Amino acid sequence: MKYYLDEDLSPKIAEILRKHHIDAVSAHEAGMQQAADREQLERAVSEGRCLITRNRNDFIRLTVQFFNEHRPHAGVLIVPHTFPGDKFSLIAHAIAKHHSKHHTGRVEAYAIDFLEP
């Protein structure tokens, strides 16, 4: 599974994930800072990546819109605010744990999952 980190997550998380051989890119690295949420999701979809974000409400709404519009979607993984935003290793470890459970394939289209500690 490949991941695209929304701009609300540090690019350091993507760097840590890559050190663990997990295909991850951040919006910062992709030059997508200040892009609209819809553009972020479209970018993730265009690369077949599951989008990871802390922005739960907007991406749930966008997922429903993409479903209703029959647009491609590669899943969304939400990082709850119970994870401190500055604990990059903690977040990366939780993503790696999620990845180990789902690495054999893709997340179902339109799936929304929540990162667990």
Q: Tell me the radius of gyration.
A: 13 Å
Annotated CATH architecture: 3-Layer(aba) Sandwich
The CATH class is identified as: Alpha Beta
Summarize the biggest pleated sheet.
Answer: 5 strands, parallel
Number of helices: 4
**Beta-strand share of residues:** 5-15%
Fraction of helical residues? 40-55%
Q: Could you please say which CATH topology applies here?
A: Rossmann fold
Strand segment count = 5
Which class do the helix and strand fractions yield? alpha/beta
| Overall body shape | globular
Which terms would index this structure?
single chain, 117 residues, alpha/beta, Rossmann fold, five-stranded parallel β-sheet, 4 helices, 5 strands, 40% helix, 14% strand
Brief summary:
The chain is 40% helix and 14% strand. The chain has 117 residues and is α/β, with parallel strands linked by helices. It has a single domain, classed as Rossmann fold, CATH 3.40.50.
Question: How would you summarize the topology of this molecule?
Answer:
Blueprint: E1 3-5, H1 11-19, E2 24-26, H2 37-46, E3 50-53, H3 56-68, E4 76-78, H4 88-102, E5 112-114
Parallel strand pairs: 1-2, 1-3, 3-4, 4-5
Helix pairs in contact: 1-4
